[in-house]
Amino acid sequence: MSVVEHTSHGPAHGAGAPHRRNIFMRPGFVRGIWCFALFFVIGYYLVFGIRTLAGWDPHQDWNIIVLVGGLTLGPIGFLLGIGAFDYWLYWVSGRPTIPDDHANHGATKWQDYFKVNTDHKVIGVQYLATTFVFFTLGGLMAMLFRAELAQPGMQFMDTQTYNGLVSMHAALMIFVFIIPAFAGLANFAVPLMLGAPDMAFPRLNALSFWFLPIAGTMFLCSFLAPGGAFATGWTSYAPLASEQPIGQIFFNMGVQWAGASSILTALNFLVTIITMRAPGMTFWRMPLLVWANFTTSLLVVIATPFIAGSQFFVMFDRVMHTSFFVPEGGGYVLGYQHIFWFYSHPAVYIMILPGFGIISEIISVMSRKPIFGYRLMAMSLLGILVLGFSVWAHHMFVAGMADWLRVPMMISTLLIAVPTGVKVFSWLATLWEGRIHLNTPMLFALGFISMFLIGGLSGVYLASVPITIHASDTYFIVAHIHYVLFGGSVLTIFAGIYYWFPKMTGRMYNESLGKLHFWLTFVSFNLTFFPMHWVGLVGMPRRVADYSDRFADLNLIVSISSFALGASVVVFFYNIIVSWARGPIAESNPWRAMTLEWQVTSPPPIFNFDEIPQVVGGPYEYGVPGARHAILAGTPTPAEAAV
Amino acid sequence: MRRGAIVRIAGIGIVIAILVSLVAVLIQWLPTSASKQMDRIEFVYWFATVICIGIFALVMSVLIYSVWTFRSPPEDESDGPSIHGHTGLEIVWTVVPAILVIAIGVLSAVVLSQNGSAGTNPMTIKVFAQQFSWRFEYPDSDGLKSGQLVLPVDRNITFELESADVIHSFWIPEMGQKQDLVPGIDTSIVITPTRTGTFSLVCTELCGLGHSTMRSTVEVVSQSDFDAWVAAQKSGGGKEDSGAAVFSSAGCSSCHAFKPAGSTGAIGPSLDDVAAAAKKAGMDPAAYVKESIVDPNKVIASGFAPDVMPGNFGETLSPEEIDALVTYLTGAKQ
C-alpha cells in the first residue's frame, strides 16, 4: 500500500490536463450543457431518421424523441460534458493516463463541490446538499397540496395538478432524498470507519453521484411536459400509467437514473467493505453503521433491478406497444405490482437500515456504553434482509392476487417485527445505566426510537390481513409510512447530519438551535401525521384531491401542522449554513467516540489516514478500562487531539 | 435500588398504558360497523390493540425512565458500565414478540377465512367500474341493471367485480371489506350487511383525474323493501326521466358540469351549452353529442386533453340509454 505517497499529489496539478483548455472544452457545466444539446440533437435525428426510413407515421413522434434524446442520450451527453467519463475515455482511446491521478480529488474551495470529484468525503457532502435541495422542493409541494386539502372542495388547483404534486412529492422524497441521503452519509463515514483511504472505485463513486441530480431534474421537468407531471402516484400502477400524458415517461426514466445510481453505489460499498477493511478490522469489529450499509447494499443490488424492470416494461407498453401489463394483449396487470413491490418492499428497508446504523452509533457513544448485544444487532440486520424479500405481497392484500399467498405473506411480515424489536430492545438496554448526554443527535435518536415504535406498531396492524383489507389505500397508510419514513428515516438523517457535522465541516453546529429544531419537528410531525390514522380508518381514501365534509376539521389541523413542520426545517438550514460558515472550530473528537473517523482531524486529511490504522478491538468498548478500537501510529491520544 | 427501578418503570408504564388506552377507547377509531365482516375485523383490531398498547407502554416507560435517571451533565466525562449483552434477555425479547405476533397472525388467518366465506343464503351482485363511475347488475333478479347499489340486510352478498379500464377499488367503510377491480381479472368479495341505512361506496385506488369523485351511495334495506325495489325497477320505474338517470349512473356528473343535473365536475368541458359547441364543430347538436359520447377523441374541446374520457361508452351503454342521454343533454323534449 502506498497511501502516504498519494498525499504528495496535490488536487491542483493532475495528469490528463497538461494545458488549461478554454471554458467550452474543459470539463464543467458549460461543456455539460452543450454536450447535452448535442446528444439531444443526435437522439432527435436518430429517431426522426429511423422513423422516416421505415415510413412510420408520425416521423416526428415526440414520445420517442423525448425518451431517446431528452431522457437517455442527453443526460449521457451531460455526464460526458462535466467530465464523468474523461479518465475512462482517455484510457480507452489509448491516451496517457496515470492510475494514481488525483487531479479531481478533494476540495480546497467551494467551487470544487460543483465538479466531478473522486473524494468520498466530497461526494458525501455533494449527496447531502443535492438531496436536501430535493427534500426542500418535495416538502414545499407537500405544503401546496396540504393547502388544497385544508378544506373540502377544490380551491387552488385542478386534479391533474394535485395528482402530479402528490406523485412528485413521493418520487422526490423516496428516490432522490431518503435513499441517496443515506448513501451520502455512508459515503462520508464508511471508508473512514473502515480505516480505508477512499471507496474501492472512486471514479465510479463520482459517476453514481452525478446520476442523482439528473434523476431529480428529470422528475421535476415533467411539470413542463404537455399534459402535466406524472400523476399516478409513486407506485405508478399499470394500466393507468401506460395511458397517461407524456409526463409519465419522465418518471419511468428518472427511476432508471436514480436506480442506476443506487446500484453502482451499493456495489462500491460492498467491494469497499469486503476488501478495504484496515488490518484487524474483522467483520465482528465493524461499527454497526458499516454492517447496516453492508446489508442495505445487498438489498439494493438484489432488489433495485426489479423496479428498473417494472418501469421499463410499463414504459414499453406505452412506447413500443408491448403488452406486459395490457390485458387485451394477453398481459397480466398484477404482474406490475408483483415486480414493483419485489423491489419496493425491500426499498423500505433500504430506507431504514442505514438509519438503524446511525442510531446504533449515536446511542452507544452518547450513553457511554457498549452497544447491547452487538452480534445480535448485526444478525438482526441480516434477518431483516432475508425476511425482507418474503413480504412484498403484503402491499397487495386487496389487489386480487392468488388468495393462498395472503397468509404466508402475513406471517413473514409479522415475523419481521421480531428482528426489528430486537434492535429497539437492544437500544433501550444500551441506554440502561449509561451516562446519557442529551445533545441534538441523541434527541433525534431518542425521537426516532419513539416515532419508529409507533410506525412499527401500526405496521403490526397492517400486517394482519383482515385489518389491512379495511385500512389499505386509506390515510391510515399515509400515517403509517410517514411515521416510518419521516419519524424513522428522516429523523435518523437529521441525527446523522448533526453527529457527523463537525467531522464533515470542521466546525460545530449551534446546540440550542439544534434542540429547537428537534422539538419543533417532533411536535409538528405528530400533529401532522397522527390524526391521519383516524381519518383513514373512518373512511378517507388516500390520493384524493377532494373529500367528504365530515373530515374537514382534522384535515385543517393536519394542514396547519404541516406548515409548522415545513417551518421547522428552516431552523435546521439556518443552523447548518451559518455554522458551516462561521461556527466554532470543532475538535477532532467532540463526542469522545471510538470509531475510526473520530481519530483523525476534522475535517479529515485528504486521504483520511496518514498511516493505515491497526484495529485491535470492538468499536464500542466504552467503560472497558484500557480498551482501544484501533492504534494509529503517530496519532495523538484523544486528550491531545482535543487541543 | 434495582427493585426501586422496577417499581418506578412499572409506575410510568401503567400511566402510559392508561393514557394510551384512553386514546384508544375515547376516540371512535373505526366507523360503526354495518357488516358481519367488519365485526370480525374489529375483533382482530382490538386484539392487536391490547398487544400494541402493552409493547408501547413497556418501551416508552424504559426509555423515559432511562433518560430521566441516567442523563449526565455535559462536563461528565465518565463512562457507563461495560455491559456487552445478556443472552437470557436477548432470547426473551426474541421469543416473546415472536409468540405475540404469531398469535395475531393465527387470529387474522381464521378471521380472513371466515370473512371470505359466502356461507348460507348467498346472493350475487356484479359490479362494473370504469373511470369514474360504478354500475351494478343483479343476476339473481333476472339480470336487473342499476346505477344505484341497493342491498338487502342480513344476506351474504358476493360481489363479483370487473373493471373496464384501470384498477379501481371497492370499499364501503362501515362494512370493512375492500377489493381491487382489476382489468383482465375477475375478483370477488363477500359482505353481509347487518344494519339498514345509507352508506357511501368509494374508490380507493388512484384511477385518474376524477378519482376523488368516484363515489356512490349504498342503500341497505330490509328484504321486503329490497324485493319491492327490484319489482319497481323491473316494471320500468324511473324510466320517465331516464336521461337524467343515465347521466348520474354512467358517472357523467363526476367530470362534467351540467346545470339540470346540478353537477359541477371540472375534469371535462361543461355541458351547459352543447348547442354552441356543436355549431362550432359544424354539426347538428344531437349528432355532435352522440359522437362525443361514443367517440370522445374525435373533437376535443379547447383547454382539455384527449384520452381522458373513457372511449367505451358505445359498448357499456345501450343504444336506448345513449339516445336518452343525448335527448337529456341537448335539452330536447322526450
Structure description:
The complex is a heterodimer of chains A (643) and B (334). Chain A is globular. A two-stranded antiparallel ribbon of chain A has the order 1-2. With 643 residues, chain A is an all-alpha fold. Chain A folds into two domains: 24-99, no CATH class; 117-582, Cytochrome c oxidase-like, subunit I domain (Cytochrome C Oxidase, Chain A), CATH 1.20.210.10. The longest helix of chain A has 36 residues, at 159-194. Chain A contains 19 helices and two strands. With 334 residues, chain B is an alpha+beta fold. Chain B has three domains: 2-69 and 86-115; 122-234, Cupredoxins -  blue copper proteins (Immunoglobulin-like), CATH 2.60.40; 239-330, Cytochrome Bc1 Complex, Chain D, domain 2 (Orthogonal Bundle), CATH 1.10.760.10. In chain B, 44% of the residues lie in helices and 18% in strands. Chain B contains ten helices and twelve strands. Chain B has a five-stranded mixed β-sheet with strand order 3-2-1-5-8. In chain B, strand 11 (257-258) and strand 12 form a beta hairpin. Chain B is elongated. The mean pLDDT of chain B is 89. The chains are: A mainly alpha (643), B alpha+beta (334). The interface between A and B is large, with 94 and 89 residues.
